[in-house]
Design brief:
By secondary structure, the protein is of the alpha+beta class. Helix content is about 15%, strand content about 20%. The strands form three sheets. It has a two-stranded antiparallel sheet. It has a two-stranded antiparallel sheet with strand order 2-5. A two-stranded antiparallel sheet has the order 3-4.
Length: about 100
């Protein structure tokens, strides 16, 4: 097994470092939201919490939203909008990051 030198140990990127990886984000229209919890159940990354029948994103560092759009597609009231996709800095590269759009239905 190869050993890392001091310099390599410093520059090895990690996915759990919030300074190197910023998760995606969705925003909620609370006037349209009925509190049905469907979005939080549909989220594969478990990034949406329900508090007092209102959805919210987990805090930075705990949010692992991949901007898949499942919550947007399943919301019966159309109360969710995609704000940003994941952004990788430092040693990570994002390939073909296009316009932020909801999924095809």
């Amino acid at each position: 097994m190869a050993k890392f030198n001091v310099r390599e140990k410093v520059i090895i990127p990690t996915y759990n470092d919030p300074d190197q990886v910023m998760a995606g984000e969705v925003v909620f229209d609370y006037e349209k939201c009925t509190g049905c919890t469907t979005c939080s159940q549909a989220c594969p990354a478990d990034s949406i919490l329900m508090e007092e029948k209102k959805p919210r994103m987990k805090a930075r560092g705990q949010n692992e939203c991949i901007a898949c759009g499942a919550c947007i597609a399943i919301c019966p009231e159309g109360a969710i909008r995609l704000k940003s996709t994941p952004v990788y800095t430092g040693y990570f590269k994002t390939i073909d990051q296009g316009k932020v759009e909801p999924p095809r239905l």
